[in-house]
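Sequence and structure are no longer studied apart. As an example, we show below a sequence and the tokens encoding its fold:
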Amino acid sequence: MKIVYFFWILLVCTILPQKEYKIITDDNTQKPMVVGICKQEIFTDSSFSGWYNTEFKNYEPKREILNKIIRDYDDISIKIVLGTWCSDSRREVPRFFRILKESGFPTDDVKLIFVDRTKNAFFIDIEDLEIKLVPTFIVYRDDQEIGRVIETPLLSLEEDLLNILNGRAED
């Protein structure tokens, strides 16, 4: 009977969803830091909601640019590689989500990959993404990269996104 319980517990543990992230303590600041793949809901955690909500609410995207962003998002997906410890990520990621919300982009098609200060994402191998600076916003069409915004936008986040979607990405 014990062996049946053991296999039942083993089965339950393998079927239940596993978290693909962890919250650890940043050695530099002694503050919580997310590492791994996580959903946007992580920004409701009190460790991150203060800076996220402030930047999200205060950013006013350029309406004339938003109106030009394509509305057919069926083949578009985005990966954002960021660090909760990084001031650029704390500024640009909430702004980017505000742009996505205002333009109607489905956030289910956004994958957030959180890295530590060494650009390690826990047990997720991101070496093929060639991340040098964070945040890095990588835009895909039909699973092929069509452009990226690295650390800070060249013009503005919405203008850079528009240029990427229209095939005019700056290198």
Remarks:
- The longest strand covers residues 32-38.
